[in-house]
Recover the amino acids of this structure.
């Protein structure tokens, strides 16, 4: 199998990500087991693996794409609600079989408004749209229940098994049994930035 990405180890002041190699047909899970610093770390690693930040220890043999969140415009949704069909026309390659897979859910029609979709449905929509354009992705599965997480992960694993690849940035240890590799981030707890506390004044 061809190599998609080589990571020889990423060391920062706050964490160390052990070395791994991503091969065609694989899904590698990077377990970010620190909720307080999860988002910043995820975005930093995503930018490295997608080539936006150059790192001397990471070699990209193929371009990877991050599956971005659906970003809602409250003004637009109030006056011009975005539908599944219009989202796919704008964000997916309609010649690919992936966009139509969202309609396998009997509750989703072309005219269904995005704002009415549940969390798992929205994530699947963005995954299908991205996979219609590329076979190598970086993704996460935040705020989904276990059933939704498992379904989405297995869908991606099946989608990339014939020549694609994926990196899951996640905080769920249960993914270990499904991944080709399960890499746990090693935190330097002595150098983690302080957690900001919000105080409410009454």
């Amino acid at each position: 199998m061809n190599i998609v990405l080589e990571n020889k180890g990423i060391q920062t002041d706050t964490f160390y990500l052990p070395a791994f190699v991503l091969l065609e047909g694989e899904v590698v899970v990077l377990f970010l087991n620190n909720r307080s610093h999860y988002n910043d770390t995820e975005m930093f690693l995503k930018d490295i693996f997608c080539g936006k930040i150059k790192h001397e220890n990471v070699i990209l043999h193929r371009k990877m794409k991050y599956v971005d969140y659906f970003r809602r415009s409250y003004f637009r949704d109030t006056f011009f609600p975005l539908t599944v069909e219009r989202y796919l026309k704008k964000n997916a390659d309609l010649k690919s079989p992936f966009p139509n897979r969202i309609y396998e859910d009997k509750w989703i029609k072309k005219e269904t408004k995005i704002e009415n979709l549940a969390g798992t449905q929205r994530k699947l929509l963005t995954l299908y749209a991205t996979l219609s354009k590329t076979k190598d992705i970086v993704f996460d599965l935040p705020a989904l229940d276990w059933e939704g997480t498992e379904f989405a992960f297995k869908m991606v694993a099946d989608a990339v098994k014939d020549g694609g690849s994926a990196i899951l940035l996640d905080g769920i240890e249960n993914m270990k049994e499904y991944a080709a590799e399960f890499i746990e981030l090693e935190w330097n707890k002595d150098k983690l930035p302080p957690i900001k506390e919000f105080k409410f004044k009454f």
